[in-house]
Design a protein that fits this description.
Blueprint lengths: L9 E3 L4 E12 L13 H13 L5 E12 L1 H5 L5 H7 L7 E6 L6 E3 L12 E4 L15 H10 L8
Parallel strand pairs: 2-3, 2-4, 4-6
Antiparallel strand pairs: 1-2, 5-6
C-alpha cells in the first residue's frame, strides 16, 4: 500500500531529495477580479517551501508543475471548509501536493493528514493573503503554507 510515509515521492539522486510535484490553485470570485493576492506570487511560495524543508536532512523539493485558476463565486464564498472546491478541482495522485489560495473566514489554512488510501480532500487550503508578499501581516511571509504542508507530510504540532 502506498502512502506519503512509505515513499510515493520520486527521488532525485543528484540532489538527494524527494521531489513533490505541486499544483497551486488560485480561486477568484469573478473574471478579472484582483481579490486573490496569491495570483502572480506562486513561485514565491514554492521558494519559501523549498527553503523551509531543505534543512535538517528532510530532503524535500517542491516543484511547481501547474498553476490553475478557478473563477467561482461559490468556491470563493464556500464556508470555512472548502470541501466542494477541493473535490472538484484536485489533480494528480497522492504524491501530488495541491494547494489552494482562497478567501477563508475562520482559519489561516488547513491540511489533510496523510493516509494509506487516497482521500479526495487531500491537499492544503490557505488564506490567499498569507502568501509571501500578501497583506495579512504578520502572516504574509508564506509560513502558513509551510505549516500546513508539514501537516500534509504527516507532521503534528510540536511542544517544547
Amino acid at each position: 500500500m502506498q502512502s506519503k510515509e512509505n515513499g510515493i515521492f520520486s527521488f532525485d539522486p543528484a540532489s538527494n531529495k524527494k521531489r513533490i510535484p505541486t499544483i497551486i490553485h488560485i480561486v477568484k470570485p469573478s473574471e478579472g477580479s484582483t481579490a486573490n493576492e496569491a495570483e502572480g506570487k506562486e513561485q514565491n511560495q514554492i521558494d519559501v517551501l523549498n527553503a523551509a524543508f531543505a534543512g535538517n536532512d528532510m530532503g524535500f523539493e517542491f516543484v511547481l508543475i501547474k498553476v490553475e485558476t478557478h473563477v467561482s463565486q461559490d468556491y470563493w464564498n464556500e464556508g470555512p471548509l472548502k470541501d466542494n472546491m477541493v473535490k472538484a478541482t484536485r489533480e494528480g495522485g497522492m504524491e501530488t501536493l495541491n494547494m489552494w489560495f482562497v478567501a477563508l473566514d475562520t482559519y489561516l489554512g488547513y491540511a489533510v493528514f496523510p493516509s494509506d488510501t487516497f482521500n479526495e480532500l487531500d491537499g492544503v487550503v490557505n488564506l490567499h493573503s498569507t502568501i509571501k508578499g500578501g497583506t495579512s501581516s504578520p502572516y504574509n511571509l508564506g509560513a502558513t503554507a509551510v505549516h500546513e504542508v508539514g501537516h500534509w507530510l504527516g507532521l503534528y504540532h510540536s511542544t517544547y
